[in-house]
Design goal:
Layout: E1 4-5, E2 16-23, E3 31-32, E4 36-43, E5 46-50, E6 53-57, E7 61-65, E8 71-75, E9 89-96, H1 112-120, E10 125-127, H2 129-142, H3 148-162, E11 167-169, H4 181-197, H5 204-210, H6 215-226, H7 230-248, H8 253-259, H9 265-276, H10 280-293
Parallel strand pairs: 1-3
Antiparallel strand pairs: 2-9, 4-7, 4-9, 5-6, 5-8, 7-10, 10-11
Protein name: AraC-type DNA-binding protein
Keywords: DNA-binding, Transcription, Transcription regulation
Domain HTH araC/xylS-type: 188-286
């Protein structure tokens, strides 16, 4: 997996791109692009990597990713099996340049909240499901729309989101992609290795070797680039996978612990509570209660 720059996908005659993708699984690399990107998941689950943030994603979730912010949405492993529903993934992607209405538009008094939204998007934004519900029909209406009404539709969506306070930022600080090409390739190799091997024991030495560094140099490098220690970042990948298994409710907590790459149940419980603020058993119970209500 490499960190790649994606050229614009919009047609020359259009000012932005809006499309609906229905497919068996999401096939993409860790990437970035100049355009801001709205991603609305109608049907899909998996793990998201936005800047230095790691988390799960699911149906009904809406994200806004800022210009040049590295990101990857990867489905759960079962999506990549041979026999899978042809439309297991259903999502809408909207990509637009920060100045898609001209350089002077953001200077207008009426556009101040929109400019703030674009700046916050450099941390990655996850909107609440209530906010996503408000723009659900508007986002679907963009797909296939043409002419001035399509621009009005996008502005309507951005206006609703710019005044919404129902969102969380994914990173603690704004992310700008200023890596050299060698750094991009190195970070991509590291993240790819962790994503593919987190269930197994991973030694610091082997990851440092992938980065062509000594362990001490690697630890300093990784902390500088992600603002997280290597152990913290790896534990977050493991814990997000554990969250998925706990929600599914098909395994015991101890089994989930070991299948997520932890060696002891004590350490798993401690790390889980530190990140999620509740124990694994409480997390599982919370989602079971939610399903019973539904």
């Amino acid at each position: 997996m490499k960190l790649t720059y994606k050229q614009t996908e919009k047609k020359p005659e259009n000012s932005f791109l809006a499309r609906q993708d229905r497919m068996p699984c999401i096939e993409q690399d860790w990437h970035f692009h100049k355009e801001l990107e709205l991603i609305y998941f109608i049907k899909s689950t998996g793990t998201r990597y936005v800047g230095n943030s790691i988390g799960n994603f699911g149906p009904g979730e809406l994200y806004l990713i800022g210009s040049n912010v590295p990101h990857l949405f990867r489905n759960d492993r079962e999506y990549y099996a041979d026999k899978l529903e042809s439309e297991a993934v259903d999502l809408v992607v909207v990509k637009f340049d920060p100045d898609f209405l001209g350089t002077g538009f953001k200077d207008l008094t009426e556009a101040k909240k929109l400019l703030t939204l674009f700046q916050v998007a450099n941390k990655g934004i996850k909107f609440s499901k209530a906010a996503a519900y408000l723009v659900h029909n508007h986002i679907l209406g963009l797909v296939g729309n043409q002419g001035l009404s399509s621009i009005v539709g996008l502005l309507n969506i951005l206006d609703i989101l710019s005044i919404s306070e129902n969102y969380t930022t994914l990173c603690l600080e704004a992310i700008s992609n200023t890596f050299s090409q060698n750094e991009k390739d190195r970070m991509a190799r590291i993240i790819s290795y962790l994503n593919e091997n987190f269930e197994n024991k991973i030694e610091l030495d082997e990851v440092a070797a992938i980065a062509c560094m000594t362990p001490n140099a690697f630890c300093r490098y990784f902390k500088k680039r992600t603002h997280k220690s290597f152990t913290q970042y790896l534990n977050e990948i493991r814990l997000r996978h554990a969250c998925k298994l706990l929600i599914e409710g098909e395994m015991q907590v101890a089994t989930i612990c070991f299948q997520s790459g932890f060696n002891t149940l004590t350490n798993f419980n401690r790390q889980f509570k530190a990140l999620m603020k509740i124990t694994p058993s409480e997390y599982m119970e919370k989602y079971n209660q939610r399903e019973e209500v539904v």
